Amino acid sequence: MTRRRLLLWLPLAFALHNAEEALTLARAFPVVRERAPALAVAVLGPADPGHAVVLTALGVATLLPLVVALWALARPASVAARWAVLLVTTAFLVNAASHVATALWLHAGHRTPTLGVWYAPGLVTAVLVNLPLTLHVLRRAARERWLSSRGQWRWLLPAAILLHGPGVLGAWWLGRWLGER
């Protein structure tokens, strides 16, 4: 597969993942709130944010990989664009790990008939689509030396964790703000 085609698969995979979340999050939200620590409940806001808020937040989160992929396609020689692609790719990896952790946390000692056993919104595509794709992209990027220095690689995981954590909260809050308008 060409690099160009691979870059197009990244936003498509994340859009598919976000579609799974959009279809399943509303059913899961009460369970998440019931089992979430008080700080998480305070950060998430009202008990039911409404489907429009969820869709807006997921839409915002879907745009970033698309913009980054288009930038890398338009500027294939740009180290910054390649690094941004690998940052988003590594954030997908962090996202997959967070979905597995969330499924384990949600269902630790519980059987939740409304969600099924060991399922959390987004888990299927995170594990079956995003995880294999991100590992493939990262291995290929290392093999083809998309980045020239170890220092550029070294900062991917910490930056991806920062992008994923505050990025998810930022998309959520932006979704709430836009959804209220």
Structural write-up:
It is a single chain. This protein has helices spanning 3-35, 38-44, 51-74, 79-106, 123-144, 150-154, 156-179. The chain is 79% helix and 0% strand. By secondary structure, it is mainly α. The chain has one domain (3-179). The mean pLDDT is 84. The chain has seven helices and no strands.
Instruction: List low-confidence stretches.
Output: none
Number of helices: 7
> What is the residue-mean pLDDT, rounded to a whole number?
84
What pattern of helices and strands is seen along the backbone?
A: HHHHHHH
Radius of gyration over alpha carbons? 17 Å
Protein name: HXXEE domain-containing protein
Transmembrane segments: 52-73, 85-106, 118-135, 155-175
Keywords: Membrane, Transmembrane, Transmembrane helix
Organism: Roseisolibacter agri
Report a brief summary of the structure.
The protein is mainly α and 181 residues long. It has helices at residues 3-35, 38-44, 51-74, 79-106, 123-144, 150-154, 156-179. It starts with a helix and ends with a helix.
